[in-house]
Amino acid sequence: MPRNFCGLRLSVASLLVMLLPCGSSNAAGASRSSESSGSLTTVVIDAGHGGHDRGGIPGQRIAEKDMTLDVAQRLRNVLSASGYRVVMTRDSDVFVPLPTRVAIANSYRNAIFVCIHFNATQRRGAGGIETYFYSRDSLPLASAIHSYVVGGAPSSNRGVRRRGFYVLRKTSIPAVLVECGFLTNPTEAAYAQTASYREKLAEEIAAGVRGRNSVASASYIDQSKVAKSERHRSKRSHKKSARKKKGSSKPTGSEARSGSIDREA
User: Per residue in 63-117, pLDDT tens?
Assistant: First the structure.
């Protein structure tokens, strides 16, 4: 599965883009279309952040929102060429609230939801790939995508993790969130800024989608209880803050962080 990595362009389009399956006259193309149209008809791709929400941490040089959109668009192209119908929660540099992203995903039956992110932390040495899921029926998808991405990336394996991020808790279809490396790690950031690496990420995620029923479910780190306690602390903190200060300059609906990452909202 591992292959060598060897440079980003954003499109301006509508908020929600649906791409019909691309036909193919050769045998390989017909096989791919048959595979994808059997048990799965739609893949909803969610490019994290966007618009006023750059993602990452304060002072981060590379905007996460740009990297996630580019990988998501490349993933769309790969999957649509394989016969899948693809829906994008955003296809340009716009801010989409988390409830809207979830509503888009939940409006499709017989579908899966793939959320693309990059990680960040104050510790420059932190690195690696990690994949999150929440519902038990999402574990096979998370296991397959993680296996392919880790197998094809020159980054360490941070494992499959169960955690209650909003877009994972609230979706009614199998849903995963892929952290494609740390943009605060100089080496991984350099890779992420090359088109060939982002294309490779898209290809490996797509391979995981196609192989979601053929990869054994991975052991995982359960962080769901930690996430719940963080949400409770966050709510208490917000209440105290609201009593001290009625207004706030922070955009509502942003994907807030705590520590290296916290995609609760």
Answer: 999 999 999 999 999 999 999 999 999 999 999 999 999 999 999 989 999 999 9
Contacts of 249 (CB under 8 A, 6+ apart): none
CA dist 88 and 47 (Å) reads 8
Cβ neighbours of 205 (radius 10 Å):
30
Among residues 11, 56, 67, which one has the least CA distance to residue 198? 67
Per-residue pLDDT at 228: 56
Q: How far apart are CA 211 and CA 94, in angstroms?
A: 31
Residue carrying structure tokens 């509508």: 14
CA distance 88 to 105: 9
Q: How far apart are the two ends of the chain, measured CA to CA in Å?
A: 36
67: left (phi over 0), alpha (psi -120 to 50) or beta: alpha
Q: SS3 helix, strand, coil % of the chain, rounded to 5? A: 40, 15, 45
For residue 145, give Cα distances in angstroms to 16, 114, 132. Answer: 24, 10, 10
Q: Where are the domains of the chain?
A: 17-244
Half-sphere exposure in the Cβ direction for 222 (13 Å, CA): 3
Residue keyed to tokens 């932190």: 126
Cα distances from 31 to residues 110, 186, 215, in angstroms, run 20, 40, 19
Write the CATH number of the domain with boundaries 17-244. 3.40.630.40
Handedness of CA 107, 110, 111, 112 (dihedral sign): positive
pTM: 0.75
Closest to 66 in 3D by CA, of 17, 151, 9: 9
Q: Write the DSSP assignment of 112-131 as a string of letters.
A: EEEEEEEE--S-TT---EEE
Which one-letter amino acid corresponds to residue 187? T
